[in-house]
Amino acid sequence: MEKSIIQYIAEAKSTLFSFELLPPLKGHNFDSIQQAIDPLVKFNPAFINITYHQQEVVYENLPNNLMKKHTVRKRPGTVGISAAIKYRFGIDVVPHIICGGFTREETENALIDLQFLDINNVLVVRGDPQPGTRVFTPEPEGNEHALDLVKQISNLNRGIYLDADLQNTRSMNFCIGVAGYPEKHGESPNMDSDLYFLKKKIEAGASYVVTQMFFDNRKYFDFVTRCREKGINVPIIPGLKPFSTKAQLTSIPKTFHVDLPVDLVKEVLKCKDNKAVKQVGTEWAIQQSKELHAAGVPVLHYYTMGKSDSIEQIAKTVF
Predict the structure, then answer these.
(1) Domain spans of the chain?
(2) CA-CA distance, 290 to 300, in Å (whole number)?
């Protein structure tokens, strides 16, 4: 049976290595996933996270000057890709489970599929608002908050399904991870509010936290300290993303609501092209990783965005 993330952490003698992948765009095959994983297998990743993407609304211009609305899922296949990785590579996987685009029944059915595949680790996130909108809107009969989703999965772990008339139900055994934000979630009024709801998710059944990306390790260390002061005592896994393009000077703060250190920005601005930026970003992430590794963090988790070359350079130096 698959180990839980908590088991991996408890049994580890040093900091573990893990990373996150995006499912390929619809119409593509497993090759891009294979190419991203192959260079990183030699570093013995404890697990691989697979993101989930909700459906998007797109509009088609019609000849009569009207517009037709379409709903599409551009990156489907999270469950199938998770199973393929698990059984092709022998590496445990952590599919993301999101609120956006799913009813509670669809969520329950996806979790049943995962249990049949012996995939028992999940990362629960609410998901972003629809592109072009500012406010997250759940599906009718869907979960509105990550906390609601944690509660639903915890109920399944106790054998409680949506259909109360089911007889002799089996309990599931999901290990639930949730997201944490060292610089607070972009929609939270303040850090205290953010930590209040993070603690609620732990109390509801989550076993560990994976952080949003950050570029200043003090943000992570301060976040851990504040979590402990609030009674959040589960493992807190730092999430890192190597900087790669000049455009990210504006896109990362805007999209992920994080600050970029002055020294990093200065070095990026000196670069003549994105190749140089990528090397600066990799070296910055190496230094972050070394400090976090020395501090004994449970896992170093990397956001690859589907590209593994920078992560390979970092892992060669750190692991």
Answers:
(1) 5-243+298-307
(2) 10
